[in-house]
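Marked as duplicate of an earlier ticket. Keeping the data here for the record.
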Amino acid sequence: MKDSNAERMLRKYKGFANSVKQMLNQEYKFLGGDKIQDMFIKDLLEEFNRHLKDGWKLDAGQVVWWAAHKDEYPGRNKTIENTKMVPVILSIANQDDLKLRLDGYSAKEIRKCKVARILREAYEQDGVLNQADVSS
């Protein structure tokens, strides 16, 4: 089934991109003309999609967590607002934890394995966690 021009035009004016364009025209009139706004919206959508994690794809025991990007370096007066953040999916609980428990490992030993796993998972997704992120 082929899309008609009318259907394509209708889709163009519905959705998130057009809502952002309307907001820019109404609330931020100082932000350039149509071409500048279209470029801004394209960049905004790319950034949004880069940070979007599909909650339906999470396994049981997983959470989405915001971590500092692994290429960020701490600074004396650097705040979290000035830190590049990335969403990461972390396995708070998984089958390995249960297997360790059934094999007789202590809660302390299992916790060490969990922390190591969570730190590794974050790093593999370009994130790093601090002590407050992994403390229980």
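See parent ticket for discussion. The longest strand covers residues 62-69.
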